[in-house]
Amino acid sequence: MADAVIAATALRRxxxxxxxxxxxxxxxxxxxxxxxxxxxxxxxxxxxKTTTIRMLATLTVxxxxxxxxxxxxxxxEADAVRRSIGYVSVSSGLPTLLTVGETIRTFAAxxxxxxxxxVDALARFGLADLGDRAVDALSxxxxxxxxxxCATVHDPPAWILDEPxxxxxxxxxxxxLTAVRAARDRGAAVLFSTHDMGIAEDICDRIAIMHAGxxxxxxxxxxxxxxxxxxxxxxxxxxxxxxxx
Length: 245
Known about the structure:
The protein is an alpha/beta fold. The chain has a single domain (6-90, 157-244), classed as P-loop containing nucleotide triphosphate hydrolases (Rossmann fold), CATH 3.40.50. 37% of the residues lie in helices and 26% in strands. The protein has 9 helices and 10 strands. Strand 7, helix 6 (170-185) and strand 8 form a beta-alpha-beta unit.
């Protein structure tokens, strides 16, 4: 995995429960995400996608295994990892009392960037004309684009996106995916989790099929369909998971 921007090796997370029981949320997960690639974690809710992503974003400590972003270990070099990523989750918040411009300038300042970085970020996400609008007045799709702009205002080499299209309508999701493709084309490594088969096939260069905390297959959408001997990704997912069980 020497050329990987994001790398996970035998990553595992166990949550303790009462009476000495435990739940294995992520079990020996390994993959890599390269520069200029959108890599998908495809699986249903409860598959372990969010826990995996939170470990890579330094928000959850791995029980065992290792992971790195831009060569920085997520456990030992958390600050360096955070400077290298743009992280957006379904729970990412925004300061609703500020305007769009005030919000992006605040995030740029937190990253130590010049005000011009805020201007560039708004332009990248099609928000340049909305600087004076209150965040609270934005549509759901515009808010998600602003979250992405804030998370990536420092133009990080790694994007870590956890279900970023959740709750978006078709047009808003398409606008967001266009921004993700542009980041990939600029050379960013994008880790993109989703449970939506159509979005995974549309945006991801490679896909990891994840279920019950494990990765069962990795490949392009076409390779996964060929592996399962079926014509669509949904049936490929089901066949691969059932075959692994």
